[in-house]
């Protein structure tokens, strides 16, 4: 692919500069996809740090058995808000930030399809985040029933639960608007000559993710609205005494919740599918099969939800159905992993920081995938349900998976965003510390779970002490590594560094590398030619 823009450099940096909004108005009223992408990324990093502090407090309490610092209620508030903030405040907005920045650049569009709606979808997030954090300071405190908000606990909580429901509604509306924008941009605004099957994989994974968001966010809205009416309006959707069923909430919630897991990983697959070919200096192996595998994962994600519910007393026939459909997800996922490895096979590999994070992702995400396959087996899951084995599994998918993919994408595209190269040594320091400490934190949790340590408890039996001390220390070191990344990689890179060429990576392909670094305020006002 090659592309050209009609804008000359003197226009971009000369007379055009005066037309750019400046100061606070540029950000508050932002309609440029790059500015809105930057807002999403700053917001997600902020929430990553807030959620990270809650994780550090959780691990502080679990350093030794017995109650050290927090009562069980406050501990469970930390656990619940850590999950909600990391999912809805850190991981999802980060991927939307990447989409805002890169989708128009990759498809040769001048901007996102609905610029003002794009602005609105971002500005719903900060007040929602404030509601979540402020719930700690109202009577009764934050929700303490887990991020899943299961009744009857969620019906018994104080006003912090109402704030959380409102926040979830706002974040869901933001996600739906963002998804509509991404779908319309990809389907209607691609450059001439860019057929769907010529699109970069990142655009494909986001197109499929956007359809997932539109399908499942209203389901979450339904679930929390029913909780709200049970709390305040006398309905009994989830109250058995009034003819309701608390298990029904789990069915509705996980019909949202399992596709949500793929919403948080499919864009990461897209990022990895951009990076591995670039640093292998050869095309992605099996492009069409990657597209079909992504679609297959999304479709199958709708028929596996009750694997979260094997201990709720479902019939054996249903257990078998959900067990086998869950195992089915391993096939398209295995296709992806095979294709990534095949892309690297006999490639001219180099291991700059983006590639390190991509290869690290490949390894640790595969561990998370295998432990998920083990949990899909109903009789095993009955033993491991609500133990630290489950905690290990989903943190391998979401921390070692989603977060590593986001870091890989950051290092890959940040020269295009800021116009500066990051410090390679510091990037590699960040990678190796992240890789080591994420494994030392979460791998021992598999053994804790196999030995029977339950999750969401502020206390534990003495025999679990050694592993908990190890994971707590490693978790703090992992957290400090991300603080290092923020203060010694991100902020210095925004302020300066070696000037980045238009195409800093030798093997990189795509329209985004045909515009200058940093990408000018307006790009592709005349659609580029795609060959």
Automatic annotation (TrEMBL):
Signal peptide: none annotated. Its EC number is 7.1.1.9. It comes from the Bacteria. It is a multi-pass membrane protein. PROSITE patterns: COX1 (PS50855), COX1_CUB (PS00077). It is found in: Cell membrane; Membrane. Residues 27-531 form the Cytochrome oxidase subunit I profile domain. Belongs to the heme-copper respiratory oxidase family. Cytochrome c oxidase is the component of the respiratory chain that catalyzes the reduction of oxygen to water. Subunits 1-3 form the functional core of the enzyme complex. CO I is the catalytic subunit of the enzyme. Electrons originating in cytochrome c are transferred via the copper A center of subunit 2 and heme A of subunit 1 to the bimetallic center formed by heme A3 and copper B. This is Cytochrome c oxidase subunit 1. It comes from Massilia solisilvae.
């Amino acid at each position: 692919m090659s592309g050209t823009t009609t804008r000359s450099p003197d226009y971009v940096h000369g007379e055009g500069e005066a037309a750019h909004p400046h100061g606070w108005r540029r950000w508050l009223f932002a309609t440029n996809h790059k500015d809105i992408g930057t807002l999403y990324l700053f917001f997600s990093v902020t929430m990553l740090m807030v959620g990270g502090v809650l994780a550090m407090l959780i691990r502080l309490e679990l350093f030794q058995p017995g109650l050290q610092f927090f009562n069980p209620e406050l501990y469970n508030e930390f656990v619940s808000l850590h999950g909600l903030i990391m999912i809805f405040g850190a991981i999802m907005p980060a991927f939307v930030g990447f989409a805002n920045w890169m989708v128009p650049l990759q498809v040769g569009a001048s901007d996102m399809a609905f610029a003002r709606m794009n602005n609105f979808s971002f500005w719903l997030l900060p007040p929602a985040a404030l509601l979540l954090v402020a719930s700690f300071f109202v009577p009764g405190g934050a929700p303490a029933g887990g991020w899943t908000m299961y009744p009857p606990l969620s019906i018994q909580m104080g006003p912090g639960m109402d704030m959380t429901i409102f926040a979830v509604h706002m974040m869901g509306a933001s996600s739906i608007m963002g998804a509509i924008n991404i779908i319309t941009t990809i389907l209607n605004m691609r450059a001439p000559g860019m057929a769907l099957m010529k699109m970069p994989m990142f655009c494909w994974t986001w197109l499929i993710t956007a359809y997932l968001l539109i399908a499942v966010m209203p389901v979450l809205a339904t679930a929390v609205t029913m909780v709200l009416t049970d709390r305040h309006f006398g309905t009994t959707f989830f109250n058995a005494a009034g003819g309701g069923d608390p298990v029904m909430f789990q069915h509705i919630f996980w019909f949202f919740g399992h596709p949500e897991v793929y919403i948080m990983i499919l864009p990461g697959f897209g990022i990895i599918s951009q990076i591995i070919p670039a640093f292998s200096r050869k095309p992605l192996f099996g492009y069409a099969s990657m597209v079909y595998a992504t679609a297959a994962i999304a479709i199958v994600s709708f028929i596996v939800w009750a694997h979260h519910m094997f201990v709720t007393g479902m019939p054996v026939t249903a257990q078998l159905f959900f067990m086998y459909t869950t195992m089915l997800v391993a096939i398209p996922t295995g296709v992806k992993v095979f294709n990534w490895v095949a892309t690297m096979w006999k490639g001219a590999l180099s291991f700059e920081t983006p590639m390190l994070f991509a290869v690290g992702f490949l390894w640790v995400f595969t561990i998370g995938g295998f432990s998920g396959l083990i949990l899909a087996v109903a009789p095993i899951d009955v033993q491991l349900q609500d133990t630290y084995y489950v905690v290990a599994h989903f943190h391998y998918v979401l921390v070692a998976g989603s977060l590593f993919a986001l870091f890989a994408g950051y290092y890959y595209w940040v020269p295009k965003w800021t116009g500066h190269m990051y410090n390679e040594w510091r990037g590699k320091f960040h990678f190796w510390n992240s890789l080591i400490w994420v494994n030392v934190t979460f791998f021992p949790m598999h053994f804790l779970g196999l030995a029977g340590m339950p999750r969401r408890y502020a206390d534990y039996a003495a025999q679990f002490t050694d592993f908990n001390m190890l994971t707590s220390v490693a978790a703090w070191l992992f957290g400090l590594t991300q603080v290092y990344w923020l203060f010694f990689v991100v902020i210095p890179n925004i302020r300066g560094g070696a000037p980045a060429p238009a195409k800093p990576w030798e093997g990189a392909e795509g329209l985004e590398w045909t515009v200058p670094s940093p990408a000018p305020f307006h790009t592709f006002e005349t659609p580029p030619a795609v060959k």
